[in-house]
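Try this one yourself first.
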């Protein structure tokens, strides 16, 4: 497990505890923005991992948004 994986899991856990879908989407967009220059410099392994992390953040944002909508429409 590399340092970038540990940072991803720490940020992911923080976002799960924060329960705000907007923060998860911003984290995903940030991961994509960071990966673009890495692809340009041919650093494929790290850039590819950042794409996977962005997908994880987007999936978390979708799940948190669905949970939030479920509990708001429940009443």
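Now uncover the answer:
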């Amino acid at each position: 497990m590399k340092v970038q994986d540990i940072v991803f899991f720490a940020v992911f856990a923080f976002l799960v505890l924060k329960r705000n879908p907007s923060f998860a989407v911003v984290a995903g967009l940030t991961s994509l923005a960071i990966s673009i220059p890495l692809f340009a410099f041919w650093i494929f392994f790290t850039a590819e991992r950042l794409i996977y992390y962005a997908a994880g953040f987007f999936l978390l944002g979708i799940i948190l948004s669905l949970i939030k909508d479920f509990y708001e429409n429940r009443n």
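Discussion: The mean pLDDT is 93. The two ends are 44 Å apart (CA to CA).
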